[in-house]
């Protein structure tokens, strides 16, 4: 039986239209709807399923960020996680927090909590880094099974199906291991209202990166965040000949 | 019927003889009337009833501010937190799982959706947590119902028939044993509930039901026989709140009379059957059937709220649930307006986006304002109820009337803005329009509720006039009261009455609106008094007059409600405060103009003449059995 750690990140909701701050230092987050990163929902679902199948004993959810991160942890608890750890990072520091920091934090917690499986979303939909799972495995020196679309536990091994270009790859990893969840791994459940009420009573522990001995000083500097270029309007050409000559002009034929 | 006696003539001042005819009212069983203790006995010495209700006191030309200012804020931090956590998954469920058009087409809620709603906990929002529900208060309930109203009114009825009326009686009047037995069944154990009152010959006049339950010879059961129609969830319900006549012996006279009693009836008692689902104009996915009771054996411990108290139980359940409709309609208006605005800001005609045209702007402004007013009422009432108010029945009735009419208007305008696109099924507005139609009819028709508001208010004002009249029998002991009244009338007689001051309660920027509301309160109180003097006992039959009084009371209450909410937003420097101020000013300006017009109609010979004309026209048509006029071609 295994203990599972899942990472959950609070991100701007997928349905929100993103706006860049006027000073180009980032995107507007204030007063904007946030929710759990969709890939992390899949990770939580997989962990909870493992517990339901009696493959896991306990599911621990962890999130890094300012106090609002607790909302996301409550959602994970409502979905079925047993307890939560909030790694408190003040809003100012959070802006420069990178996968390198998160992976060190997760690795330390994984060791402290004696977990056997770490499941993370393959990437967050805000920064699209797709690095945390890989780095966490690196820091821990555990095997990794990324972009998992199917996970089966056999004895002390996990049989993982990965979606790769042009097909599926089947791999085996020994526990302990780090997994990252891909889109088709499962369909995450809805947090039901009674479970949300129950989640309020589940334990939520707070720690700081300092408590964990992780240095979160920034390694990179954001120079500017820009909107994607606006698509140029097309123009109507009078006939085929003009079209061909225009295309030639631009080197298309 | 109402009996009104001429009690006295009072000379207030030599120059101003005011004849007070006092109303002595024994309320008839209009389906919305709360039988209130104040009517019983009607002894002259009994002090006039007190009420915290703004609307009630408005009928006396007075401002009772405790339930309107400041705007209620009843949720503590933890309750807000909980509610915020519930909003997202509920919204997500309705956006991603439930399919309103499919439900409408199938004329039932899709299996997966229905199962999901049970799983979600949506059927037991107000059942205490230890009995299997979520234990939400009225304000939290309102917020979630708003989401339902924004997405699927048919599902809203399935949910509402279950918890807003179906088992609400058990929550409100159930014994601890009844609660422990039944509340887990209607929440965690997923058994549907229904509210069974209406019968073929008994709609608005709920006191006239014919279903009857008599005690079995051994005294352990009531034997119920009868049938009900248009019962929401009638085909699904396992647990029903059923109203039936039972013989009750009057303690004093020894006379046995039939009185209405409420019962908790389980389908499993046997003898309970139902008809096929009715074909309806809207809310098609909700299940509506006839329900029949044939020698149903109900254990005597299943009497709900006491033998003979059924009418009170029924009215309290309905009154208690009405704010929920205002909340649902607020959600509906939000979502239909979003659709219309999305269209208006993208649709290009005559070289401009149509939202740049005044004709569209007026529509959008009115839609937005009506939603603001309705939503403000919904949460004001839920807030009052949550802080323990008992005096909210008129406000609740107004909320139902106002919300159902605004939602109809707003959806109609949304369709109009979208033109042909609005008429198409897939746009999703025509279904909303069909679904909305019933809201002006059920749970007390708007017409009956208007009469209820007007008559209850008038009765209250009448009782106070009577107190004044009594004071004249002992002028020295009641000098203060009399001098106050004399002063009030003297000021009014020279047209200086600006009404009871409300500017102290509102933000300084809304001073003008508050002043006009004050003036309306004074005018309204005077109009009620004049109507009492003029019509005497016949006021109950003057429905043309009562209708205008009701409309004025709705306009006046809504003015004060938005003044209160907008004041809160301005005080909190909310980011939308200025927008809210625009809507509040618009609403107050237009509502006070309507009040003036409606009150003038009560004394205008032209308008009164029109009432007579309308009555005559209607009589002619009814006598003829169809329209009287012929086609202009003569055939």
Automatic annotation (TrEMBL), chain A:
GO terms for molecular function: electron transfer activity. It is found in: Mitochondrion matrix. Its main location: mitochondrion. SUPFAM superfamilies: Adenine nucleotide alpha hydrolases-like. Residues 24-216 form the Electron transfer flavoprotein alpha/beta-subunit N-terminal domain. GO terms for biological process: amino acid catabolic process; fatty acid beta-oxidation using acyl-CoA dehydrogenase. InterPro entries: ET-Flavoprotein_bsu_CS (IPR000049), ETF_a/b_N (IPR014730), ETF_b (IPR012255), ETF_beta_N (IPR033948), Rossmann-like_a/b/a_fold (IPR014729). The keyword Mitochondrion applies. Keywords: Electron transport, Mitochondrion, Transport. It comes from the Eukaryota. The keyword RNA-binding does not apply. Heterodimer composed of ETFA and ETFB. Identified in a complex that contains ETFA, ETFB and ETFRF1. Interacts with ACADM. Heterodimer of an alpha and a beta subunit. Belongs to the ETF beta-subunit/FixA family. Heterodimeric electron transfer flavoprotein that accepts electrons from several mitochondrial dehydrogenases, including acyl-CoA dehydrogenases, glutaryl-CoA and sarcosine dehydrogenase. It transfers the electrons to the main mitochondrial respiratory chain via ETF-ubiquinone oxidoreductase. Required for normal mitochondrial fatty acid oxidation and normal amino acid metabolism. ETFB binds an AMP molecule that probably has a purely structural role. The electron transfer flavoprotein serves as a specific electron acceptor for several dehydrogenases, including five acyl-CoA dehydrogenases, glutaryl-CoA and sarcosine dehydrogenase. It transfers the electrons to the main mitochondrial respiratory chain via ETF-ubiquinone oxidoreductase (ETF dehydrogenase). This is Electron transfer flavoprotein subunit beta. The lineage of its organism: Eukaryota, Metazoa, Ecdysozoa, Arthropoda, Hexapoda.
TrEMBL record, chain B:
Pathway: Lipid metabolism; mitochondrial fatty acid beta-oxidation. GO terms for cellular component: mitochondrial inner membrane. Coiled coil: none annotated. Residues 308-454 form the Acyl-CoA dehydrogenase/oxidase C-terminal domain. GO terms for molecular function: fatty-acyl-CoA binding; flavin adenine dinucleotide binding; very-long-chain fatty acyl-CoA dehydrogenase activity. It is found in: Mitochondrion inner membrane. Keywords: Acetylation, FAD, Fatty acid metabolism, Flavoprotein, Lipid metabolism, Membrane, Mitochondrion, Mitochondrion inner membrane, Oxidoreductase, Phosphoprotein, S-nitrosylation, Transit peptide. Residues 82-188 form the Acyl-CoA dehydrogenase/oxidase N-terminal domain. PANTHER family: ACYL-COA DEHYDROGENASE (PTHR43884), VERY LONG-CHAIN SPECIFIC ACYL-COA DEHYDROGENASE, MITOCHONDRIAL (PTHR43884:SF11). Homodimer. Homodimerizes after import into the mitochondrion. Belongs to the acyl-CoA dehydrogenase family. This is Very long-chain specific acyl-CoA dehydrogenase, mitochondrial. It comes from Megalurothrips usitatus.
């Amino acid at each position: 039986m295994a203990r599972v750690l899942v990472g959950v990140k609070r991100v701007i909701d997928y349905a929100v239209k993103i706006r860049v701050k006027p000073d180009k230092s980032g995107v507007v987050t204030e007063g904007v709807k946030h929710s759990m990163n969709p890939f992390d929902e899949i990770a939580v679902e997989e962990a909870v399923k493992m517990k339901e199948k009696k493959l896991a004993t306990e599911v621990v959810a962890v999130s890094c960020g300012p106090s609002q991160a607790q909302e996301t942890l409550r959602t994970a608890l409502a979905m079925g996680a047993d307890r939560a750890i909030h790694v408190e990072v003040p809003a100012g520091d959070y802006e420069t927090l990178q996968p390198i920091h998160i992976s060190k934090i997760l690795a330390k917690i994984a060791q402290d909590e004696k977990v056997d499986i770490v499941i993370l979303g393959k990437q967050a939909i805000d920064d699209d880094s797709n690095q945390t799972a890989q780095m966490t495995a690196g820091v821990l020196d555990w095997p990794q099974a990324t972009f998992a679309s199917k996970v089966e536990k056999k004895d002390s091994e996990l049989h993982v199906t990965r979606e790769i270009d042009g097909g599926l790859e089947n791999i085996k990893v020994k526990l302990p291991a780090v997994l990252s969840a891909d889109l088709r791994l499962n369909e995450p459940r809805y947090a039901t209202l009674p479970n949300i009420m129950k989640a309020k009573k589940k334990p939520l522990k707070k720690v700081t990166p300092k408590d964990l001995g992780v240095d979160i000083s920034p390694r990179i500097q954001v120079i500017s965040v820009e909107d994607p270029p606006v698509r140029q309007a097309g123009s109507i050409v009078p006939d085929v000949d003009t079209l061909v000559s225009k295309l030639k002009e631009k080197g298309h034929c | 019927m109402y009996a009104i006696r001429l009690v006295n003539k009072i000379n207030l001042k030599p120059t101003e003889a005011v004849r007070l005819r006092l109303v002595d009212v024994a309320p008839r069983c209009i389906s919305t009337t709360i039988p209130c203790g104040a009517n019983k006995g009607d002894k002259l010495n009994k002090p006039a009833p007190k009420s915290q209700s703004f609307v009630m006191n408005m009928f006396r030309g007075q401002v009772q501010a405790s339930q309107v200012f400041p705007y209620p804020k009843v949720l503590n931090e933890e309750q807000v937190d909980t509610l915020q956590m519930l909003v997202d998954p509920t919204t997500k469920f309705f956006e991603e799982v439930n399919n309103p058009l499919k439900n409408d087409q199938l004329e039932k809620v899709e299996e997966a959706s229905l199962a999901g709603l049970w799983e979600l906990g949506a059927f037991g929002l107000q059942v205490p947590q230890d009995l299997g529900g979520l234990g939400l208060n009225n304000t939290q309930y309102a917020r979630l119902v708003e989401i339902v109203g924004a997405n699927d009114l048919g599902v809203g009825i399935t949910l509402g028939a279950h918890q807003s009326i179906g088992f609400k009686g058990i929550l409100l009047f159930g014994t601890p044993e009844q609660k422990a037995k039944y509340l887990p069944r209607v929440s965690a154990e997923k058994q549907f509930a229904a509210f069974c009152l209406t019968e073929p010959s008994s709609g608005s006049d709920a006191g006239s039901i014919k279903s009857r339950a008599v005690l079995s010879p051994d005294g352990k059961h009531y034997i119920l026989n009868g049938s009900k129609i248009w019962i929401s969830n009638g085909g699904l319900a396992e647990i029903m709140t059923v109203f039936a006549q039972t013989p009750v012996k009057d303690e004093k006279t020894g006379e046995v009379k039939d009185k209405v009693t409420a019962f908790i009836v389980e389908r499993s008692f046997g003898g309970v059957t139902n008809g096929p689902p009715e074909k309806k104009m809207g809310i098609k996915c909700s299940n509506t059937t006839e329900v029949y009771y044939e020698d149903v054996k109900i254990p005597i411990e299943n009497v709900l709220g006491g033998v003979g108290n059924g009418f009170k139980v029924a009215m309290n359940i309905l009154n208690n649930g009405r704010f929920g409709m205002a909340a649902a309609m607020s959600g509906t208006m939000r979502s239909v307006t979003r659709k219309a605005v999305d269209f208006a800001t993208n649709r290009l005609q005559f070289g401009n986006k149509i939202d740049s045209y005044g004709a569209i702007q007026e529509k959008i402004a009115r839609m937005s304002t009506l939603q603001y007013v309705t939503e403000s009422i919904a949460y004001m009432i839920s807030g009052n109820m949550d802080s323990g108010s008992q005096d909210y029945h008129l406000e609740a009735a107004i909320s139902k009337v106002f919300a159902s009419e605004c939602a109809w208007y707003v959806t109609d305008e949304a369709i109009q803005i979208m033109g042909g696109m609005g008429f198409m099924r897939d746009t999703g507005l025509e279904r909303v329009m069909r679904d909305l139609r019933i809201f002006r009819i059920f749970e007390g028709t708007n017409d009956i509720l208007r009469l209820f508001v007007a008559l209850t208010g008038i009765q209250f004002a009448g009782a106070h006039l009577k107190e004044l009249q009594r004071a004249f029998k002992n002028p020295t002991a009641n000098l203060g009261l009399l001098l106050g009244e004399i002063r009030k009338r003297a000021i009014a007689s020279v047209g200086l009455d600006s009404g009871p001051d409300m500017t102290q309660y509102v933000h300084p920027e809304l001073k003008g609106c508050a002043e006009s509301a004050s003036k309306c309160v004074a005018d309204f109180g005077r109009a009620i008094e004049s109507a009492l003097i003029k019509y005497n006992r016949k006021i109950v039959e003057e429905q043309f007059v009562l209708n205008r009084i009701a409309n004025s009371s709705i306009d006046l209450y809504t003015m004060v409600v938005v003044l209160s909410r907008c004041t809160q937003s301005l005080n909190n420097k909310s980011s939308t405060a200025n927008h809210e101020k625009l809507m509040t000013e618009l609403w107050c300006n237009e509502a006070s103009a309507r009040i003036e017009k409606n009150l003038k109609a009560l004394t205008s010979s032209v308008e009164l003449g029109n009432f007579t004309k309308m009555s005559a026209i209607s009589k002619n048509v009814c006598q003829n059995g169809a329209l009287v006029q012929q086609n202009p071609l003569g055939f």
